[in-house]
Amino acid sequence: MIFKGRVWLFGDNIDTDLIIPGKYLVITDPKELAKHVFENIIESFYTKVKPGDIIVAGKNFGCGSSREHAPLAIKAAGISAVIAKSFARIFFRNAINIGLPVIISDKARDVIKENEVILIDLENGYIERENGERLMIEKYPKFLLEILKDGGLLQTLKRKFGSDND
Amino acid sequence: MGMTISEKILAKAAGKDKVEPGEYIIGKIDLAMFHDLTGPLTLNVLKEVGYDKPWDPNKIVIIFDHQVPANSITTAELHKILRAYAKKYKIKLHDVGNQGICHQVLAEEYVKPGMLVVGADSHTCTLGALGAFATGIGSTEMAAVVLTGELWFRVPESIKFELKGNLRNGVSAKDIILYIIGKMGVDGALYCAAEFTGDVSKLSIDSRLTICNMAIEMGAKTGIINPDEKTFEYTNVPSSYGNIRSDNDAEYIDEIEVYLDELLPQVALPHSVDNVKPVSEVEGIEVDQVFIGSCTNGRLEDLEAVAKILKGRKVKTRTIIIPASPKVYLEAEKRGYIRIFLEAGAVVCNPNCGPCLGGHMGILADDEVCVSTSNRNFIGRMGSPKAKIYLVSPQTAAVTAIEGKLTDPLKYVGV
Ligand code: SF4
User: Fold this and answer.
1) Is B120 in the pocket of ligand 1 (CB under 6 A)?
2) Which pLDDT score is estimated for B235?
């Protein structure tokens, strides 16, 4: 799986309330959620983000609540992947389960620049910068990569249970 | 080499004799919970899968707590969908009248030591206080659990927090966990199981639930405490039942001692839970709203401490008090606490999450300051992104309500 996109830089400890405030949690349509993503950090982020853009953040991205609305909103806004020094664990799980690649890199946030166009190669485990520099990333266990390839746990479940209607 | 309680419970759930930190396992789930905000997404996923029959309806609980009774048409629709699903498969539902904060209801009625518990809510880690391995998951994986009764886990490393000594009057479990998070940072225990040992055994179950509740605020996968006589009594099981405990030679990636004798009342300042100071250093901040409740501090012990302080006094600032469950509410009523709160000028609401997540009631306006016993002070958490939230113990919240400004409860000790 390869992704290429323009970078948005974020800081440390971007919590789920910053990603999508609690008052929007009654919305279940990802497209509607996306309209409010990051609105407390960057005004009308939704209108500024382009399909394929990549977030590069500091440590503990997605800390806070278990709301799956958070990765859903990010994905529906067109973001193709999130790179961070570390992720809060529920966010990490949720992101993979809904098919949003989340990538752990110790170095990315320190060297990559805002608006830089980078490439991510998940299978081979690296990020390639505009200047050709390659940063190694942590590889997933195989079954998680499979879920991502499926496009999320939902597709995996569909395969398993979908035809078995009673 | 021995195993920790977390490793033992995960090993049992995976049908193995031994597991090690870092290992991925598939665990059989003993109890799964979702609520009125995360449940609808789970049902959406099931709908898309085209198959929604639960693996075992007896092991699932649905609880209304975040926006209950319904506060809008949208919420009412979500409740309706969940109600219909519960009815279709005879799943236990805590609907209006029987509603309460999910983690408290689970503690009171469902969780037993040794269980593997998942909830579609991040504070599911609360239940580790009862000697279970309990952790929060997302809505899609909850759908996978509903269908299969299983889920993947990475066996976490454990950090041991050894509590030593006794708390002085006016200081409580909330101060212990705020202090620990202040020292560890919001990612200080990322992916780990935070195991509390030592003189945690002197603390009540209510206090233990408060401590484990906030383990997630330092990034932990769960907070957990070895079961003892108090646990067995609270969960109503014989001590022979699920008596799984950490071995003496279990391995921890870190062991931290926490001294309780000298501990002062603590406060987490805006906008981060690890921005912690003793209350005495920041006293005097003017306060617009005090909230006492939530899955952190809406239990009987908390209300008892608040009632002691509010008895015969009046609040100077608007004060919202919410018992965490119907059981807590009823007992508080019996003991006369509710009357004390009302006479002091506070409003008492039905058991629910209330202002904690800014989605239902007690929402904050721009620039307002709230002193709250809940667990998160993120920007925008309780309403306006321009509001400020200070997290404190029930004792600190109560004296703050009386004074109208942030106040150290030690001043009121013995009064
Ligand atoms: S009380 Fe607050 S933290 Fe606890 S479950 Fe409800 S919204 Fe979440």
Assistant:
1) no
2) 96
Residue B42 has pLDDT above 70, yes or no: yes
Q: Would the CB of B292 count as within 6 Å of ligand 1?
A: no
The band of B415, judged by pLDDT with boundaries at 50, 70 and 90, is low
Tens of pLDDT, residues B153-168: 989 999 999 999 999 9
Residue B263 CA to ligand 1 center (angstroms) comes to 26
Pick the CATH number of A2-161 from 3.20.19.10, 3.50.50.60, 1.10.150.20, 2.40.160.10: 3.20.19.10
Other beta carbons within 10 angstroms of residue B91's beta carbon come to 19
Domains of chain B, with CATH numbers?
5-259 (3.30.499.10), 267-413 (3.30.499.10)
Give how far Cα A35 sits from Cα of A20, A164, B8, Å. Answer: 10, 36, 44
Amino acid residing at B267: V
Q: Residues of A near B (CB-CB distance < 8 A)?
A: 13, 15, 17-18, 21-23, 25-28, 40, 59-60, 63-69, 86, 88-90, 93-94, 97-98, 141, 143, 152-154, 157-158, 160-162, 164-166
Whether residue B105 has pLDDT greater than 50: yes
How far B67 CA sits from the closest chain A CA (Å)?
10
- State both tokens at B32: 């799964």
**What is the model's pLDDT at position B242?**
63
Structure token digits, residue B74: 């949208």
The β-bridge partners of B347 are B320
Share of chain A above pLDDT 90, in %: 70
Locate the domains of chain A by residue range: 2-161
Average pLDDT over every residue of A68-81 = 95
pTM: 0.90
Angle, helices A89-97 vs B139-148, to 10°: value is 70
Centre of ligand 1 to C-alpha B295, Å, is 6
